[in-house]
Structures are given as C-alpha cells and as structure tokens.
Amino acid sequence: MIFITRRERFSAAHRLFRIEWDDKKNYETFGQCSYPNWHGHNYELFVTVKGDLNRETGFVVNIKKLSAIIKETIIIKVDHKNINIDVDFMKGKLASTENLAIGIWEELEPSINALGIQLHCVKLTETENNFVEYYGK
Ligand code: NI
Q1: Whole-model pTM?
Q2: What SS3 string covers 83-102?
Q3: Are 80 and 14 in contact (CB under 8 A)?
Q4: What percentage of the chain exceeds 70 in pLDDT?
C-alpha cells in the first residue's frame, strides 16, 4: 500500500451563521466568518489516495488523472463561487471547513474508487493557520 497526495487550490466566498440566531450570537460563535456580507478564503485542498504500486508504471495512480478528477468533480463547482449559495453538495449545510471537507470526500470517493484505488484523506486549509483532515466515517 502506498499513498500519494495531490494539491489543488480554489478561492471561494462563504459565511458562517445560523439564520435563527441574531448577529451577536453568530459573531460570538463564528467570529469574523459570521459577517453578513460574505468574505473569501484561498483554500488549499490536499487529496491523499492509496493503493498498490503498479509495477509497469511505478505509480499508484497517474497524478495527472487524479488532478483532472479533482478539478472536474470539485474545483469547477467551488472555485470563485459562494459556498453557501452556489455549491450543490453544500446545500443546507453550514459552510464550515469541516463540512466542506466531508462534502468534498463524498463527491470525490466514487471517482477515486473507479480508478481501483481508495481515498485516504481530504485535507482542506482555510487559512495558513487552520486546516481540517477527514479520513471518512
Ligand atoms: Ni471564513
């Protein structure tokens, strides 16, 4: 079993808030990310997959193919979009980095499995100081 990670980047807007809470409670809970008129982040997405080494190619997966799948499945849906409004797999969810990482995993996993390999980790950085890692259920 060997692991390989591809990084992709995207920029997106969001707001963390609960509609049933007032601005004060939203601010106390979510800080600046609760400001009403949205804001953006430059996200970095690290997708780690695992599988057996292909002795002919020396690869676990062709990294260009992995990159294309991430772009077609995720990046095109989130880049320069509003996560709260525009992203189908985030509808009805709080636009936290945690929920976004879980949503990305669920979107990506079938395409990764179709390559005969497994998704191992979705790591998503929201700022240079904050990131989440999701390893599936
Ligand atoms: Ni934010």
Answers
A1: 0.96
A2: HHHHCHHHCCCCCCHHHHHH
A3: no
A4: 100
Which amino acid, one-letter code, is at 9? R
Q: How far is the CA of 51 from the centre of ligand 1 (A)?
A: 34
Are 52 and 61 spatial neighbours (Cβ–Cβ below 8 Å)? no
Ligand 1 centroid–CA 9 distance in Å is 16
> In angstroms, what is the span from residue 116 Cα to ligand 1's centroid?
35
> Which residues are tagged catalytic?
33, 80, 126
**Phi then psi dihedrals of residue 80, to 5 deg:** 60, 30
Statement: residue 137 has pLDDT above 90:
no
Write the DSSP assignment of 11-38 as a string of letters: EEEE----TTS-HHHHHHHHGGGG-TT-
What confidence tens digit (pLDDT) does each residue in 106-126 have? 999 999 999 999 999 999 999
CA proximity to 77, closest of 87, 67, 66: 87
* Predicted confidence (pLDDT) per residue in 55-79, tens digit: 999 999 999 999 999 999 999 999 9
CA 85 / ligand 1 centre spacing (Å): 14
